Amino acid sequence: MEKLAYIGRITSLDPIPNSDNIEAATVVLGSGGIWKGVVRKNEFQVGSTAEVYLQDAILPPEPRFAFLEKKKYRINIARFRGALSECLIVPSTIDEPIGTDITERVGVIKYEKPLPEHLMGENSGGFPNFIPKTDELNFQAVPERVAMLQGKPFYASIKADGSSVTFYWDIDTKEIVACSRSLRKKNTENSAHYRMVRKYNLETVLEKTTLAIQAEMVGPKIQKNKMGLPDLEIRVFDVYDYSAREYFSPEQLQSFCKRNNIPAVDIVELGSTIMSMDHEALVRYAECRTYTNGHAAEGVVFRQMERATRHDRVSFKVINPLYKD
């Protein structure tokens, strides 16, 4: 179960301009990272403990969470009078140490974006364990990764809001395989995943290789098609060599996609070494990003420039508070 709720400690409280009733809080969650939130004035003091509910947590319909009923009890990133609200911070009813995961205890579940019926298709098994799943962590949860990229070469790409897909060549069965985020899909005529295989000639591209292409499938009827595309497409964000257990570098990724006429994610910044960004600066960086049609982008993904293995890769995502799904 993903960790979506913690016991945290308030480390700072700051006034919000033109606000009499609310103030900006920073909360530390131990291994859960460092988050920003908006709380009622005088509800907490620096050093207070709190229950903290993170992005995409769906809370139980308890009376104390009744104010979230219209949002179906889901936690979203937003701004209140300019102040970041990345989580819900409430007085603690649980006597546990800072950093304790209370997700299961409180009954929190993760919001999963609905998968359109035309993308479901038929499943044929679980996701292969020799390929990493495609779930980037929020930067707030991994401050050590943010610190590791400071002053180091990095690249940033636009986060496309679609449906995660992985394609690879099965060296045992000698066939192309398409997967959703967590399941292997059957190769049927009406499968959207295998439509992408045929559209981009992926069987020829991957045949007899140990490469896995990982992408977002985007277009009509997927997450409201915020990119405004007329047909289903993919945006490749990773190529993973499962034999070498290494990801392609950004230059290798871009070259691979260009050579094979496959769309890659849009790069915002490539090869920069000037990443002296604090918490607010990272969010502002994501807030000014748009898709090519001008719609606010879902966010930005930061990664190291060097080729990396699945165990030592430095990467994280920054969600755009202006994006509404």
Give a written overview of the molecule.
It contains seven helices and 20 strands. It is an alpha+beta fold and 325 residues long. The chain has two domains: 5-110, Nucleic acid-binding proteins (OB fold (Dihydrolipoamide Acetyltransferase, E2P)), CATH 2.40.50; 117-319, DNA ligase/mRNA capping enzyme (D-amino Acid Aminotransferase, Chain A, domain 1, 2-Layer Sandwich), CATH 3.30.470. Strand 12 and strand 13 (175-179) form a beta hairpin. The radius of gyration is 21 Å and the shape is globular. The mean pLDDT is 93.
Note the topology.
Layout: E1 5-15, E2 22-28, E3 34-40, E4 49-53, E5 57-58, E6 78-80, E7 83-85, E8 88-91, H1 103-106, E9 109-110, H2 117-120, E10 123-126, H3 143-149, E11 154-159, E12 163-170, E13 175-179, E14 183-185, H4 192-199, H5 202-206, E15 211-218, E16 233-241, E17 246-247, H6 250-259, E18 267-272, H7 279-287, E19 299-304, E20 315-319
Antiparallel strand pairs: 1-2, 1-4, 2-3, 4-8, 5-9, 6-7, 10-14, 11-18, 11-19, 12-13, 12-15, 15-16, 16-17, 19-20
Number of helices: 7
> How far do the termini sit from each other?
23 Å
Structural class: alpha+beta
Biggest beta sheet attributes = 5 strands, antiparallel
Question: Radius of gyration over alpha carbons?
Answer: 21 Å
CATH superfamily of the largest domain: DNA ligase/mRNA capping enzyme
Quaternary state of the chains:
single chain
Q: Could you name the CATH class of the largest domain?
A: Alpha Beta
Q: Would you list the SSEs in sequence order as H and E?
A: EEEEEEEEHEHEHEEEEHHEEEHEHEE
Name the helicity range: 10-25%
User: Globular, elongated, flat, extended or rod-shaped: what is the shape?
Assistant: globular
Portion in beta strands: 25-35%
Overall number of strands: 20
Strand order of the largest sheet: 3-2-1-4-8
CATH architecture descriptor of the largest domain: 2-Layer Sandwich
What is the total number of structural domains?
2
Overall pLDDT confidence: 93
